[in-house]
Specification:
Number of strands: 0
Shape: rod-shaped
Strand content: under 5%
Radius of gyration: 32 Å
Length: 102
């Protein structure tokens, strides 16, 4: 009798898929076990299961004290270091936005 060799099917190697986290999922603690993740082309904007880690406490903003000679200055000019040489100060008009504020 002749021997018949049976070919075994080629073994397929399965590569682990990596999921690209977008939207809320990037910061969610439940992302590794989430079954609600959508596709990456439509980032998640709302999720009832969203939980984020506690954020570290931000240090409070320092209080800026007005400079002694604040006499007639108003708005940002009150505590601006450049106010003595400023060309943008208008009397009786407070400055609320200034690119030269220091």
């Amino acid at each position: 009798m002749s021997s018949i060799k049976i070919k075994e099917p080629a073994k397929k190697t399965v590569k682990p898929t990596t999921i690209k986290l977008v939207g809320l999922c990037v910061n969610c603690e439940n992302a590794p076990s989430c079954c609600l993740m959508g596709d990456a082309s439509r980032p998640t904007q709302f999720c009832e299961e969203f939980v984020t880690a506690a954020m570290p406490q931000a240090s409070p903003m320092p209080v800026v004290e007005p400079i002694e000679s604040a006499g007639t200055y108003e708005g940002l000019c009150v505590n601006c270091a450049s106010r003595e040489s400023c060309a943008f100060i208008v009397p009786d008009q407070p400055v609320l936005e200034c690119n030269e504020y220091a």
